[in-house]
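USER: My hope is that you can spare some time for a protein that puzzles me. I am handing you a single protein, as its sequence and its fold in token form. Walk me, if you will, through where the backbone shape changes along the chain. The protein I mean follows directly.
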Amino acid sequence: MPYNLLSDINPSSIHWTIQVKVSRMWEFHGNTDEGPIKHLDLILLDEKNNAMYAEIPPDAISILKPKLNEGMVAVIKKFLVERAKTRFKAVDAPYMIKMNRLTNINKTGTYPPTFPEYTFRLTPFHKLNEYVNVDEKFHDVIGQVTAVSNSAVVRVSKDRHQTKRVLKLQDLSENTLDVSLWGNRALEFNGEQVYEQGQKQAVIVIFVGTLYKKYGGPPFLSCTSACRWYINKQMIPEVQRFYQQLPQPSKPIEKITLVSNATITTQVQPKTIMQLKKVDPFDQTDERYCCTVTISRLTPNQGWLYVSCRKCRSGTRLIGGTYKCNDTDCTEGDPEYRYKLCLIGTDGDGDLEFVLFGDVAQLLIGKPVIVMRNKYRSDEIPLEIQNIVGQKFTFVVRISAKKFIRNPNADPSFEVIYIAEQFGKQDLNLQINMNQPPSTSTPLQVTKDLPPLMPITDNTIGAKEDKAQDNNLEIPFDPMDIEDNQRLFDDGTGKKRAFEDIEDSPSGSTMKAKSKSSKTK
């Protein structure tokens, strides 16, 4: 059947049927990646390389998101066409698509072989100064990576921390550009492989969906949820053309060391797991250590949240229909859900339990506890937590002294007070489709006899098809939503465990290593 081209659809009708490729897809949460999802965003391409932005509202995400994947071609109908937004425009189109709960999405395996895959509009480095802190549109750039950092957790405000990675790009005129990747984007970008490959040959990247920012220091390209990148995709003519014009041989990529606020401001001793097992809980209670581990599994028969006292973070008990704090010196009892995440980490020579409370666990999971509590039943292990297994971290920890003293024959448990560095998943399973035709420009003739560029895959930090959130609005705490026997917790296996072994964190102890305030771009 004939399909409508994106260049033809407009608000005059509601009976459009389009065949499009999902070029990009991302969740928009507002100013941070931690709040409730406000809408799901897509960039769609038709067979003539027309591009259009599409948006799915929160009430339709759980219905439509499971039917969508980046790179798929689908036939879509039953949607509205509206005037394009005037801010944060990802493509040049006068209209946008607004999907709804009745929108019909059917994946198709039959489509023209020339169907495009990418869309971008490259902004030259020297033109970016015209768009400092301007949110009218996103910017796409191409450049050679000349330096790349590790990922690290940095302070972005008084009470908020976020993962960051930085790199430097250079254009063909040797102009340089600082790039900052934030949150999940910092973990997904495979900086380690980029650095390794950059010792042998050029690494050329197209970044799309970025903003040019300036906060006190030099301006930089900011990469958040809308950002994507295409690394050494030699099938893209712009990448091939850039490669052909680079001086040879290429200079090796330099390494930037990005140090987390915890490492800067807190004196910690590096320890292996075998060394941590020898820590004395009596003499070394207040000592901090750093340890790099890969999460091998979740601690068995443990839950992921508990009912805490809002003031001192201790556990609570239900007395006469009112929750009372377990700490007899605390006069409060106002309850709230709080994360308590128990993980087993290994460094190859041994393993230990690492426990993350409250904000530290939320930084790892990426979502507030009330959102997770609304999304999952108490007998489920959330997918976001399951996806932590296999990821590698550097933790700043202290011994859980009381728990170890109660059971000195067992290995000690350590509370994570800071996540100093996140390395992402260590297995690279993403496949690169080298057979897709380029979506921009016409093929160009190769004029230099150069070795082929080696493509680089992203780090995998979670399942590609996450469950959609039905409605992530925060709701008031309801004491009736807690089991009457608050001393027991359903561990997800049908068994119950007591809260007796919860190591109560002092109020504000997590995420508050003594430090000088530092501003981060």
